[in-house]
Write a structure and sequence with these properties.
The structure is a homodimer. Chain A is an alpha+beta fold. Chain A has eleven helices and eleven strands. The C terminus of chain A is likely disordered. The structure holds a DNA duplex.
Chain lengths: 361, 361
DNA sequence: GTTGGCACTCTTGCCTTACGAGTGCTAATA
DNA sequence: TATTAGCACTCGTAAGGCAAGAGTGCCAAC
């Protein structure tokens, strides 16, 4: 059964109103506000059919209607009006982005905090990284018992480690090690650092004190850490301002899941680019804890095969339009600043694609 | 009016029971459990006096008694039995501490997470730093447009920054800058980096491209950041498992305060050392948001004038003994591992001093 | 000083009732 | 045929009343 234009308008009105008030929406309210010239009785007939079709439901016989996940899905895919952000909001985002963005690693917590502040929902930021290699290897001799390892990665982040030794080393040895590592350990991934390689380096450096393995261990740990997706959740407390989380148990469960670094992107679902925003509504989420929440995700490109995700979690009664818009802008801004992006973040407004699991446009 | 031994026992029984059950404690329950050989009527008389003295209060006429902040204070200062941690708990703490402790900076989030996990309350960790200076300055030449600044601080943490230039620089220039900074910018605090110093360095290096100010800016920002106390809150969601925070508004308010990095140590109150644990009960806290919560704080010494704090926040009905014990152990372990400490963390058990604002032992 | 007994207070849970919001249905209407 | 007005019906919510139970305070006896 196809859905008439009027039904669509009514559905949109129900969702809009419900998002605004968190109260079931009655026929009278729609007749009064939605501006389609018909009486509440007519609306009632239509509402009954929308319930039959699965877009709406009633908490109980004498209550108004509430959107089902399917209703939200329809709303997100076809009905919702794209909220243009106000000039102030757009500027606010850009201002904040410019404020401090150095390394991606420092930034991930900032990104999630920013997303949470802007949307007033809990937000989660994470980065994943394709194969990272070491680009450059330096060892700084501090004194006979101390040196600093400085490693520059293919994604242009720089890691260092201060090493204190129980024994003394001389400067030539450090220099030898530095150049050996710089030639032998650059351009390779973590699993290419084999015991064989370490051994041969150790022999070549004439290292009898196990320095080589200390340095190699650092190299491995750095590459390892870069591979593990870093994630950061913030603003969990904002959940509590949502009426659907007034039940502390419900809130506790979801917050626990989030703080535990729970993944929000279902396995197998991939993000295509910074212009795409994914919306996962209620049961479309795989995690049990998210089954009656919604998640909105944007991805950004941080250059050098580093992808980042920004996700926002809230009740299914979320302000999809505004949040999607904000995340999209944020993601575009990040892509642009962190290397991958090219277009100006303004342009994004006209290209925003919103997708979800059961979308089939 | 002085307080009799029996009153003390009764008070302790009330607090213990209330901590356990979160329900007002009646005279019958005390007569049955506390093991002082007298009837509930006697207990009732004593309870009435304890109410008069301000140690207890009644939610309403026909309810049991609940400790007042003053009652908790007495309990913490004099009455509570020091809970020895079980072997497993002690080992758990040490195991977790050993697991990963590299730089203090990385650690602060781990410390707070750990404290929160161990105590099941939200926890906050922070470090403050007395004057930090630069100990060593290196500039690594990567290519004509790229170099890495590596700065080692007096607290032995190492910071780096990758700089991309729009113009080309030659290696000798970098070397010149490196050694100039290494001699001119080490051993001084942030406010000693004056425009004068920057200018003279610039001239000495023959730098016409503004490199000097880029590098100096990094030096300033590093020293600045080291000065700002880093703080990290985790486990906010654990608040929700406490019955006194079943009211979402109350929980939201406190969690908001915590996530905002709200300070928990009243200004002017200082921590004397890792063996001391401070307890701030309800209204003893200065922050309005903490007025009906309690805070338990331990401090650790991370070497080189760096002090750290671990704080745990909960309802006034907290398990003071267990939490204080755990925090103390954690703080001692951190002190020991991060440089400042000397004694083995086991020894701490016998020296634990618990203090608070109105303590006057 | 301690204890048993008892009347009193106050909360909690439960039931009943009244109200109101919103529906579904029917019959009249354009 | 689609729309509308009208009306009975349903159901959740708030308010009031009642009984049960926990715990106290006090008194008189020990």
């Amino acid at each position: 059964m196809s859905i008439s234009e009027r039904k669509k308008k009514i559905l949109a009105a129900v969702v809009d109103e419900y998002i605004r008030t968190a109260e079931p929406v009655g026929s009278k309210a729609i007749a009064a506000n939605a501006g389609l010239g018909c009486s509440s009785a007519t609306i009632r007939n239509e509402l009954a059919e929308l319930v039959n079709m699965g877009y709406l439901e009633q908490p109980h016989t004498s209550a108004g209607r509430v959107p089902t996940p399917m209703g939200y899905r329809m709303y997100v895919n076809e009905l919702m009006e794209r909220q243009k952000l106000s000039m102030e909001e757009t500027e606010e985002i850009n201002r904040r982005l410019n404020q401090r963005l150095q390394e991606l690693d420092d930034t991930i917590s900032d990104v999630s905090r920013l997303a949470s502040q802007l949307t007033n929902y809990p937000a989660l930021a994470l980065t994943t990284q394709a194969a990272v290699t070491i680009k450059r290897f330096d060892i700084i001799y501090v004194d006979a018992n101390t040196f600093i390892i400085v490693v520059m990665l293919s994604n242009n982040s720089v890691k260092n480690k201060l090493v204190h030794l129980p024994v003394s080393v001389d400067q030539p040895m450090m220099q030898r090690l530095s150049s050996l590592f710089n030639s032998g350990f650059t351009g390779i991934t973590e699993d290419q650092i084999t015991p064989l390689l370490i051994n041969s380096t150790e022999r070549a450096a004439d290292d009898t004190m196990g320095l080589t393995s200390v340095i190699a261990a650092f190299a491995i740990s750095v590459l390892n850490e870069a591979k593990i997706p870093a994630s950061f959740v913030s603003g969990e407390n904002r959940l509590l301002s949502q009426p659907e989380f007034r039940d502390p148990d419900k809130a506790h469960k979801l917050m626990g899941y989030l703080s535990g670094g729970g993944y929000i992107l279902p396995p197998g679902v991939t993000m295509s680019g910074p212009n795409e925003v994914k919306v996962l509504i209620g049961p479309e989420n795989v995690a049990e804890e998210l089954k009656d929440s919604s998640v909105i995700i944007a991805s950004y490109d941080a250059g050098d095969n580093t992808k980042g995700l920004i996700g926002v979690v809230g009740p299914t009664r979320m302000d999809y339009s505004a949040v999607a818009e904000k995340l999209s802008l944020l993601a575009a801004g990040l892509s642009q600043r962190l290397g991958g992006g090219e277009g100006p973040p303004e342009g994004i407004h006209n290209k925003l694609i919103i997708k979800g699991d059961i979308s089939n446009e």
